[in-house]
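Handoff note, outgoing to incoming analyst
You'll be picking up this chain. Sequence as last confirmed:
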Amino acid sequence: MPAIDVPWPDDLELPQLAPLEPDDSVQFADMEDAANPAPALADADVVRITDELVLAFPPDDASFPERAEFTERFEALSTIADLDSDDDNVAQLAARAKADQGLLDTMLRVYGYYDAQVTRSVGGVQAGEISASTRPEVRFDITPGQRYRFGAIDLGALATARDADALRRAFEIQPGDPLSSDAILAEQFNLDRALGEFGYPFAAIDEPALLVDHARTEGDLTMPVSPNGKYVFGEVVSSLPRFLSGKHLATIARFDPGDVYQRSLEYDLRRAIVSTGLVSSVSIKPRAVTPPQGDRPGTVALDVEMTRAKLRTIAGSIGYGTGEGVRIEGSWEHRNLFPPEGMLRVRGIAGTQEQLFGVTFRKNNLGGRDKVLTVDAFASTIDSQAFDARTVSLIGTYERLSTLLFQKPLSWSAGLEAVATQERPQPVNGVAQPLQTFFVGALPLYALLDTTDSLLDPKKGFRAGTRLSPEVSRTNRMQSFYLRGQFDGSYYQQVTDKVVVAGRVRFGAIPGTALANIAPSRRLYSGGGGSVRGYGYQAIGPRDAAGNPTGGRSLLEGAIEARVATGYFDGALSVVPFLDAGTVSQSVLPEFDTVRFGAGVGLRYNTGFGPLRFDLATPINPGPTDSRIAVYVSLGQAF
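Most recent structure output, in case you need it:
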């Protein structure tokens, strides 16, 4: 060995190393869980959540009756349940098992089990092994123990409210009830809602506090409530009085001054203002005007802050139907040209069979919510398979409407109609018929009972509507009185999650005069996209010697279709097979000598606003002039 010339440092002193702080960000597999698994519950009720995760409960259901709900909630929150099966090594499982054990402890306290015990074990690895010889899994054995109950309940100044008894009943937690954090949150919401409905717009509820006493196995709940006085409605104050006045807003509200304040009615007023389409944003704040005095409630005003929306609209649509041809419609409107809610619309139609120019005045929410006055004046020309007409009309209607925001079980309308029209049948053997002038006065009435779940795409319920129009007609110095009546009924039933069956029936009759005394445009016709598909527009019914439809005094139609949802386009596409039938007679009651049937299939694409309809139909028993294929495109269901 070579000689070592460096002397040994006998007096060497090394500095003392500072102790390292533990790093919680680094987690190691707890091999003791795997090597020494904790004792399992005897005869446990085992619930497997995933291949890597198992919960074990006592076999007695009464010891933990909430286990089904508890398991479902735990599965949604578990870190092990989210673990990718390709990464389920024992180290990851052991680390996540500690987090899930803390989650189980917290959830058990939510349900009122404050003395519960949760034991975890990691299986599938043996002592001294680095990796598992079988698929590793985590098991939690849960012993709930005794469930705690509510002890004393302190709701602050709630007892000082005039409706203290009713408000206390709204908060359904009583001393002795099983303790539950979920129940506290739910009943806090119920109490807040009850305060708003019983006339306490300024009530306040502080955060609840729970003091758990393990000796008594009870929890004392403190939730300070300040009712802050009872109030009734006063005036509605608009931030834009010349645009939408407070007086007008009060007419569309579902409350009157002096009614007990209800928060739901305040929200309802906000929705009604939004539905006018005249504002882009609305906020309503209650403001105390007079304070409560003794047993007399105070008065609260509603301050409505609004932002105007764009009021002018240019709209257009285009459609096509075999028999009807092309139809292009456009309009311009100002929705508040005559405040409040006075709309003026100018519209026009250019089509294969119809041309029209009209002016419409509409006053929305006149005399109450969704009550509308409409005055419509238009001039039109129609060149259909049945007749030619040159018409000038003036129609006034007062109605109560259903809207997309407020669908109503009952809608109605009453009106006055004055018509001057020159009409003639289609040419016979190429020879034009003379024009016949009709002056018609009518009182159209309408009522609709609607129990469906949607205006545009119903899936359940029924509709039943009746139209009655007493009319007087004068032509060729002859005056006639008659009644135009029509009944429409439809029914919708969802038979599976993807299939809705819909059916409809229509009956119409015109008693009181002969067919010749009725203007061709006011007779009854059948056929087309909204009638019997597969046939041309107004092509079903009696015909003259040249084969032109003459219309009739009675009508009967029926239809049935299945609306079958598909998985295409995220479920927006549906397939609709259908069968339609109809007949038109010159007599007042339908005659069934010739009943036309049409069948086909359609597609519906749900646009979010309503279904876009494309129907392809064929007549089953066509007449000599009926085409073999008919196509219909429009927005909305056929009925």
